[in-house]
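Following up on my earlier thread - several people asked me to post the actual chain instead of describing it. Fair enough. Here it is, all 330 residues.
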Amino acid sequence: MSSHPISVAPMMDWTDRHCRYFLRQISRHALLYTEMVTTGAILHGPRDRLLAFHPDEHPVALQLGGSDPADLAACARIAEEYGYDEVNLNCGCPSDRVQSGRFGACLMAEPDLVADLVSAMRSTVSIPVTVKCRIAIDEMEEWSTLEGFVARIRAAGCGRIIVHARKAWLKGLSPQQNRDIPPLRYDLVHRLKAENPDLDITINGGIIDLDEAARHLEVVDGVMLGRAAYKTPYVLADVDRRFHGVSDSGPTRREIIDRMLPYIEARCLEGVPLHAITRHMTGLFQGQRGGRAWRRHLSEFAHKSGAGPEVVEAALSRIVPEREIFQAAE
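Reply from S.P.:
Thanks for posting it. Predicted structure:
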């Protein structure tokens, strides 16, 4: 098993610094990933706004999008200087914008280039350089594509690979459809691990809870949760006990909110709108009685001018029954 058996996927528009801080209050050990950040944005854009993070977010990895070795090496070095624990290369995103920039899933058709990118980054930093990919793209045969791609980047020194166990169709499917329509091929990721026993393999795609994650961890080294971790974040509450040997049970939902309140107050004083933080918290009571009212209250009041932590406290005290607030991690 990897030192990071459970991680939360990089998700555009979702896993920003406020989301990651919130998820960190649920699990102290799950590895968190940033949204994908392009090399051009880092080298020519508002770098600190893009890369700054709270120290409590560790362990945290930066996912990069790009295809130029020198640019990726420079950005990897910047990531290390900022204190990231890992730098990850995106070879899995299927969006048109990513394809036009010659990065993301289209790079799976250029394993030699990806090997050069990995080598360039590894020569620059001491933190791990990892790759997130699909099993194949478009009409390419799945196993031979995955096997060949991994062989090249492994030879370049990539020691950990995260595989989204679906093919990406760059022609004909939207990014949303690419997350659901191509069939999941967990068997190919399991085979990849069996044929590369000393390579750290993390599986991603459609995994919804820790019981399912545990079954995969009997075969592979790590499991990456995506939408399940975002839409039902309390799924992470038992990660530390089950996979990191922590003796106590996970935090209650009330404890998670209590941990967030000082952060919310500090960010609001800095001018961060409340809804920029609470939009990531709406799923905390998913499946619980009062969960819909919790979401509705935050959606209605967090956008108001001057809104602060009192909105969250009001949502909690008015809506969530006491027995739900103090319910321990299940």
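Residues 10 and 35 are 5 Å apart (CA to CA). That should answer part of your original question.
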